[in-house]
Amino acid sequence: MTDVVRTGAELGAAVAAARGRVALVPTMGALHEGHASLMGAARAVVGDGGVVVASVFVNPLQFGAGEDLDRYPRTWDADLALAEREGVDVVFAPTVAEVYPGGDPQVTVDPGPLGAELEGAVRPGHFAGVLTVVAKLFGLARPDVAVFGEKDYQQLVLIRRMAADLCLRVEVRGAPTVREPDGLALSSRNRYLDDEQRRVAAVLSRALHAGQDAARTGPEAARAAAGAELADVPGAEVDYLELRDPDLAPLAPDATGPARLLVAARVGTTRLIDNTALSLGVGTG
Ligand SMILES: Nc1ncnc2c1ncn2[C@@H]1O[C@H](COP(=O)(O)OP(=O)(O)OP(=O)(O)O)[C@@H](O)[C@H]1O
Ligand SMILES: CC(C)(CO)[C@@H](O)C(=O)[O-]
Ligand code: BAL
User: Which positions bind beta-alanine (predicted)?
Assistant: First the structure.
């Protein structure tokens, strides 16, 4: 039985009554099997005696002017059915006024330098909005553990850093990206794509695979192989393709070992992001 709560007070009461550990899965709704995998991971961490809370909240603070806040998919009935199927104990689905009773908050979380790079360079203010709402969700749900998808890798790195830097006493876990059979990462925004755009969108994961395959030869080869896949694909406009270390710091040209390859592109008016781990250097790829 999944309880639906709409206010911070109701959520506080629900988690205060919990006997086991509390795991939180923040989402913006329009739930898909990627979200379901996070809920499954949350249950695996806290066990049957724990409490899994999923939030469904389209956070205006992380959308810039001209972005898709108004048309972001809202599929409440299907979201609740998926949460019930996954055995989520509590769904927190607040209104904007409940989360931001005084309008935009005066105090927000500064994501630091990484917040202005990659996604943050294309979407100024985005990560301040993300970290602020996640900090509020942590304050409301007081989770022991919170689970986020690696699909939004920069977000995951920044939330981990926020939890550590601000001593939030929550364990931040990443979960692997769930993909369509052709490699496209599941994403709520995929539903904006028409058939032709959906076909084009598979180039992102093809590029990441090409980068992985070339990684044994070194960073430049990995980046070039991914770039070659993305070059001249009609209908796909690349925002960035970057190879970084696993914490998203820049890599030395001769770096070896673990790294992260990240891509963002616009297919029509839809922005898609994806990333993969890879291992650089001869004998490690
Ligand atoms: N394919 C996926 N596999 C695993 N986790 C995912 C996947 N897609 C999203 N998530 C995770 O689900 C959580 C909620 O994300 P969100 O509700 O924004 O969904 P989304 O599909 O990423 O939507 P959007 O299209 O807005 O990017 C985040 O932690 C995100 O990383
Ligand atoms: C973490 C999050 C739920 C905060 O609004 C959002 O950025 C998302 O869905 O990834
Ligand atoms: N999936 C990350 C939330 C966003 O794009 O706003």
Answer: 62
Whether residue 177 contacts residue 34, with contact meaning beta carbons closer than 8 Å, is answered with: yes
Nearest of 206, 178, 213, 218 to residue 36 by alpha carbon: 178
d(CA 96, CA 78): 20
Burial grade of 250 (CB within 10 A; 0-12, 13-18, 19 or more): exposed
Tell me the residue type at 49.
Answer: G
pLDDT single digits (tens) 145-174: 999 999 999 999 999 999 999 999 999 999
Q: How far apart are CA 114 and CA 281, in angstroms?
A: 26
- pTM of the model as a whole: 0.97
Q: Where are the beta strands (DSSP E) in 115-256?
A: 145-149, 171-175, 236-244
Which residue lies with its CA nearest to atom 11 of ligand 1?
149
The CB of 261 under 6 Å from ligand 1? The reply is no
What lies within 8 Å, CB to CB, of 204 at 6+ separation is 184, 185, 230, 236, 263, 265, 272, 273, 274
The response to whether residue 188 sits with its C-beta less than 6 Å from ligand 1 reads: yes
d(CA 98, CA 181): 39
| Helix, strand or coil, per DSSP, at residue 101 | coil
187 is in an annotated binding site: yes
